[in-house]
Design goal:
Blueprint lengths: L11 E2 L2 E2 L12 H33 L6 H27 L14 H10 L2 H29 L5 H20 L3 H56 L1 H29 L2 H6 L1 H10 L5 E6 L6 H22 L4 E8 L2 E8 L13 H9 L4 E5 L6 E8 L11
Parallel strand pairs: 3-4
Antiparallel strand pairs: 1-2, 4-5, 5-7, 6-7
Helix pairs in contact: 1-2, 1-4, 1-5, 2-4, 2-5, 4-5, 6-7, 9-10
């Protein structure tokens, strides 16, 4: 061997030059280094989550006998939601684990409504549990990853993959929504409040209409008949005139009661179905309305009633606000959905916040898993499409 050759220098072999290979440690892929970053940060996030969970729960439960205990516990649970969100973001950024965000807490009226909703929030409680059980795991993953970096680096990619998979399991199990059921429960709880408020408003309207309308007329009728009875012998002509007036009041009272009954549930809807009932509503509109109902069978009574009152309210908007020359109503079924569409050739520009009652109508439809879609550009035309769930009657009859 020549003295000029240095064993540390590259040597020629078969006409090529062999260069030293880089250490395996620096040949790891980007995903591996992201997993390493996640596992090394586990110690600090697990420690912070453990301390937060222990302090917030212990403090809230310990002071539950006082005025501030439950509010403190609720505030701790609100903070836990933010911790869960940050952990989902960390898992998404470093592990590529994409988890849907849980539904927000349903809005409740007043302080006590917020307190009750927060205290029974399953998302926050699972996040607190996540913080309690992750401390031992965070310590273990930190130590193993650190040792692998400097001692066991040939197995680093395999070890980080196994350890990060354990983290993904915990994130999925404790920080993801409880499948779609939890989301639907939150939506239904919110919708229940809308239904209760709507029912209460309808009862107040009926009470007001009875008190100010038919009841007042009946009271006046009783008084008029009493005076006529007194004048019957002394002044028969005046008594007869008073009886004629009372007869007119009876007719008006009966008409008001019929209108009130129609507003609750019209007889024509019960007896003859949507086609006849909507034709009756269309006849009272201030513009010509074309009605087309294409249904092979009648839906459930509740759905049929909602469809009737939805079209009634939309046609009232056409009469009051649209400045239209004509309108149309179409009803048909698509799969398990009942479709309604009311269109007019008016000025357009309708909005959900425009004071036409469309926002309230959309809320009432949403409470029964329905949907309201508005298309009303400035200058018209306006088309409002509603969807309702189709529910068949126990004994369906033909549409008449």
């Amino acid at each position: 061997m020549s003295a000029d050759l240095d064993p540390r220098q590259p040597v020629e072999s078969l006409g090529s030059v062999e260069t030293p290979r880089p250490p395996v440690l620096f040949a790891c892929g980007k995903e591996t280094w992201k997993e390493v970053a996640f596992l090394l940060s586990n110690l600090f996030t697990a420690l912070a989550g453990f301390v937060y969970a222990v302090v917030s729960v212990t403090l809230g439960v310990g002071l539950a006998v006082t005025v501030i205990g439950l509010p403190l516990l609720a505030l701790g649970l609100c903070g836990a939601r933010f911790i869960g969100k940050s952990e989902r973001m960390r898992a998404r950024a470093l592990l590529g684990t994409r988890i849907a965000e849980p539904s927000p807490l349903p809005s409740r009226g007043g302080f006590f409504g917020w307190l009750w909703s927060t205290l029974k929030d399953p998302v926050a409680w699972r996040t607190q549990l996540y913080g309690l059980i992750r401390l031992p795991w965070g310590i273990l993953t930190f130590v193993l990853t650190l040792v692998s970096l400097f001692v066991l680096w040939p197995v680093l990619p395999f070890l980080t993959r196994v350890l990060s998979y354990g983290d993904q399991v915990m994130v999925h199990g404790l920080l993801s929504p409880s499948d779609e059921l939890e989301r639907r429960i939150a939506e239904l709880e919110s919708d229940r409040g809308v239904v209760v408020d709507t029912a209460a408003a309808d009862l107040r309207r009926i009470e007001r209409d009875l008190h100010d309308g038919a009841q007042a007329r009946l009271v006046a009728l009783a008084m008029g008949l009493g005076l006529a009875k007194e004048k019957l012998l002394a002044d028969p002509e005046a008594a007869a005139a008073m009886v004629d007036e009372a007869h007119g009041e009876v007719k008006l009272a009966l008409q008001e009661l019929r209108d009130l009954a129609r507003g609750i549930h019209p007889a024509v809807l019960t007896d003859r179905g949507l086609s006849a009932a909507l034709s009756s509503v269309a006849a009272r509109c201030t513009v010509p309305v074309k009605v087309e109902v294409d249904l092979a069978e009648r839906p459930a009574e509740a759905i049929e009633g909602i469809a009737y009152f939805t079209v009634s309210e939309l046609l009232q908007n056409v009469s009051k606000h649209a400045r239209a020359r004509s309108a149309s109503v179409e009803v048909w079924r698509v799969g398990d959905r009942l479709m309604l569409q009311v269109a007019d050739d008016g000025a357009g520009g309708a909005r959900f916040d425009g004071g036409t009652g469309l926002a309230g109508l959309a809320e009432r439809l949403g409470a029964v898993d329905g949907l309201l879609v508005l298309d009303s550009p400035e200058g018209g035309p306006t088309t409002v499409t509603a969807e309702l769930p189709w529910r068949s009657r126990p004994t369906s009859g033909p549409v008449r």
